Amino acid sequence: MSHVEVNPQAAAILEMFSGLPPFDYDNLDIADYRMLMEQPSPFAPGDDVANRQLIAIPGTGGPLAAAVYTPLNCKAPAPVLVFFHGGGFVAGKLEQHDNICRMLAAGSGAVVISVEYRLAPEHPFPAAYEDAWSALQWVLREGGNLGLDTQRIAVGGDSAGGNLAAGLAQRAATAGIRCGTRCWCTPWGNLMRKPRRMKKMVRGIF
Hints:
- There is one protein chain.
- The protein is of the alpha/beta class.
- It is about 30% helix and about 20% strand.
- It has helices at about 10-20, 30-35, 100-110, 125-140, 160-175, 195-200; strands at about 50-55, 65-70, 80-85, 110-115, 150-160, 180-185.
- It is globular, with a radius of gyration of 18 Å.
- The mean pLDDT is about 85.
């Protein structure tokens, strides 16, 4: 394969990945994958925040665990980011993205609400999307009482969480709810097709 020049920022992340144990996804069962994904992300610094509060948000299938990150020098009413973790829709917990949510709160000045959602295969589609919708509805309903500016709501997530956030933004727009900003990190987009570049890079280039 011909030489490919890697972006310096991407190269730094790949260097971090090189220190992790290899994953045999073909033979990795759900229990092991979930244990792996519950570890805090090593790719974010874990910035200081004024407060991290664990709460429960009412959901259609039961209470949803959530963590509220309030940045330093936060002034009410504050903008808010409703964030959903990745994990292929089958894994992931709040702790997995603790460092990332701290970084997002510190860097944006917004309150970040990280929300867990029901996971497959125990809870197949559309359980996760219904949980995401319940979380957004709760923020809209209760945000004012928490010192949040419900006119400045962003939705975000990474990987599977980015897919949830994208679907949530579409549903919100249809319902006339304004989500002015999206924060999607490597979101799962169209899962029905495999572009040529995905097939070409299936074994990686590094």
